[in-house]
Structures are given as C-alpha cells and as structure tokens.
Amino acid sequence: MDLGLGTGQTATTSTYRPSDGPRVRQRSPLLHLAFYAAIAIKGLDGLIETVAGLLIAAFGTGAVYRFAVWLTAPELSDHPVSHVAHLVRHGAAKLATVHTGFIVTYLLIHGIIKSALAINLIIGHKWIFPVASVVLVGFVGYLSYRCAIHWSGWVLALALFDFFTLVLVLNEWRVRGQH
To answer: Cα 23 to chain center, whole Å?
Structure first.
C-alpha cells in the first residue's frame, strides 16, 4: 500500500487477518525478568534445603538447636525481647522434636527437586515446563492443605509464592511455545 512516502517506498499497516496465522504476542520483559528471579529464588532455596538436610543428617536436630541458642545468645543478652531471636530459637526447638529421619528426607527430596527444576528451567529445556507445572501444583496443594490444618501466615506466603511462580512458569512456557 503506497502511503505517499516517495518513489518506491511503501508502508504496511499492522492489521491482523486470520489468514495470517496465529497471532504471536511479544514477551513482556518484566514477566520474563520475574520468571528468572522467582526461579533463582527457588533454586537458592532448594540449595539451602539440601545443605540443611545434609547438615541435620550429619549432626542431628539437637546440634541445630544448640547452634541456634549459641547464635541468638548475644542478641538476647542485648535485647531480651528480640522477636527474631525468639523466632529462631522457637523454630529450632520445634525442629529438635521432629524425627530426624523425616526432616532429613523432606529437606533433601524437596531441596533436590527444587534445585533440579530451577537449573533446568534456567537452561530452558522445553520438557521441564510441564514437569515444573505439575510439581508446583503439588507444592501449592500440599501447602494449602497444611495451612487448612494449622493456620500459618508463613505457609500461606510460601503457597502464594509457589502459585505466583507457577503462573510465571506457565506464561514462560506459553511464550516459548510461540517462538
């Protein structure tokens, strides 16, 4: 279509016709960045869980509790009402009452799965997107169940982060499938 741009110069309009084939949406740079940030957080969390599982397997939950007491002692001597220090001690005390085999198994399996998913998603293997989607649905379902049984703002926050990550994974899978 000649729009009077000069000899031989033409411009096209961006009118979409169904005969042109499926419409390909542009990738949102913000969503793409959010995808990588969420996956990096998941991968780092998986690595921390794996290391924690190995340390608990090697030293036991009692050692974790003693370490938490040692770590928080200076803070509590300076600030006896420190909520963070009390939270760390309380968490370590609860951990010390859990059967070591269960917590080690949970941390290792959960950590290794999250790390493997994160690595493969960052590499960009196409086969990992449906696998990651199913795993994240499982994580969200389990965390929702735990939250329904015993309310926890932390568990709800983790479930929401997993749900947000699932939405980003599905979006990235959709966009990559179009290119």
So the answer is: 30
